[in-house]
Each structure stands twice: as C-alpha cells, then as structure tokens.
Amino acid sequence: TTRIREGVTVQESNPDVSQDIYLVGVDERSLREYKRWPFPRYRHADLAKTFSRITNQDERERVLFLDFIFSEPDIANPQDDAALLEAIRENGRVFVETIFPDSKTEEMPPDRFIRQQALNEKQGSIGKITGDWHAIPWSTIFLPPLAPYGAVAAGSGHVGYFNDDDKVFRHAALIH
Fold this sequence. Notes:
By secondary structure, this protein is α/β, with parallel strands linked by helices. The chain is built from 5 helices and 9 strands. It has helices at residues 28-34, 41-52, 78-91, 112-123, 147-152; strands spanning 2-5, 8-10, 64-65, 94-97, 138-139, 155-157, 162-163, 169-171, 174-175. It has a 3-stranded parallel beta sheet. Strands 1-2 form a two-stranded antiparallel sheet. A two-stranded parallel ribbon has the order 5-9. The longest helix is centred in the middle third of the chain and has 14 residues, at 78-91. The mean pLDDT is 82.
C-alpha cells in the first residue's frame, strides 16, 4: 500500500492471487519473540480460537490450513495437545497437513494407515477414479497427523507436489 496524499492510498496486487487468501507466516521476528521452534501447540490453539471468535461469522476465514505436521504427541505438555484439539473442534474450519517425505528411507510410523483412516472418516476418501488410474502418482511414504487431529479437523491437505519435466507442478500424490 502506497500513500499518495491525505486519505488516498494505492494498493498494488497480483490479479492471479485471490484477495480472499491471507497467509499468516512464521517469520524471524516471531521466532525471536517466542524463542522456540516448534511453537508450543497452545500458540496454534490461540490462533484457531481467535478466528472462531470473530463476531460476524460471515467475515471470518473459510479455511484455516495449519501448515505444521502434528505427527507426534507433545509428551512434555499433553495439555497443549488437548487445547489445540479443542480449538480445532471449536473453529470447525481447520485443515491439517499430511506430508510426503522426500526420502524413501525415512521411517514411517506403523500406524500411518490408521491415522489416514481418521482423516478419511471425517472428509471422505476418493472412491471413483475414471481414466488411466495407473498414471496417477501415488505413494505409501506419507505422514498424516495423529489420529485425534484427523478426527476433529475439517479436512486435510498437503503442500508436497510432484513437478513435471518442465518443472511445473500439476500433480499431487494419492495415498495408496
């Protein structure tokens, strides 16, 4: 936003990016202020609760995607897990992340299919695929969030994509 004169501002924006999308990032200032990474889960809970308490519910976010993987319980602070689970439930619009690790040698938790089932029970699973399904990228190397997170989340997603030969991302993996 550029201020031209009193009461007049100009805001340049990219027409290819929706004005309905807001990114809340973790920056260096936040890392200095909170002095810990990953942040305690109660911080994520506070964020989710802040959005859910907006007075005019028509003006709040449509989706809050937490781009953090909750793949292990917070053993030192189980009350933080409980607070975050309650905040996700209260918000009703939180999506959690599943990741596809780059390394096929990384050890996957044996309960990953149970975790994925918790997500599928909440949001459904892909049932009818038409066309050449053999051409769809798939993976058994995936890390969903803990099952209690999948059970309360509105849905899930991932930011891991496969690029085509021209380095453009057009495909996402299915979990097999």
